[in-house]
Design brief:
This protein is an all-alpha fold. It has one domain (3-174). It has helices at residues 3-42, 48-77, 85-118, 124-174.
């Protein structure tokens, strides 16, 4: 089999596997959301904040699945034999992380609102513990996000430096 045909067939197989996998995940997520909604509705004492939190989680989960499928699909389109493949791969990965972080920020903001509403009737001492825990968790997330962003900046710099040096090395080798 020719290399070009093998590459095309492999790419087509991977795309089909991707679509099949995400169709199954979407079906499972949809059924889980429907079952959870039925259970929550059957319990009249289930708090409204809890319902909101569950709905937010399912909504953001669906966005995460859609984003992951989009980014994996884009990465399958990359020509990994091209000279710019490392840069394009890095850009695709950074785009995926940026989307993931923006979704995490939505969840972080939503949970802050829900925690505030859920703890409104608690004594002042208990509120301070809940707020400390929530702030600590968010600080950890912010630190991780900052770490990843800085690593992408470093990787871009290294990649740019490599592409600057490589043509000069190839010109020397040609002489």
């Amino acid at each position: 089999m020719e290399t070009a045909n093998f590459t095309k067939e492999t790419a087509a197989f991977n795309k089909t596997a991707l679509n099949t996998t995400f169709d199954a995940l979407n079906t499972l997520a949809g059924q889980t959301a429907a079952a959870t909604e039925a259970i929550i509705t059957a319990v009249p004492s289930f708090p409204e904040e809890g319902k909101k939190a569950v709905n937010t989680c399912f909504k953001e989960n669906q966005k995460a699945l859609d984003n992951l499928k989009k980014h994996i699909g884009k990465s399958l389109e990359l020509d990994l034999t091209a000279a710019t493949a490392p840069v394009k791969s890095l850009e695709a990965l950074e785009s995926f992380y940026n989307d993931a972080f923006s979704q995490a920020v939505v969840l972080k903001n939503e949970t802050k609102t829900l925690v505030d509403a859920a703890t409104a009737k608690l004594p002042k001492e208990a509120k301070s513990i809940v707020n400390f825990w929530n702030d600590s968790f968010n600080f950890g997330f912010d630190s991780f996000q900052n770490y990843v962003v800085n690593n992408f900046a470093l990787a871009k710099k290294v990649t740019a430096d490599v592409f600057t040096i490589t043509p000069a090395a190839q010109a020397k080798a040609a002489k």
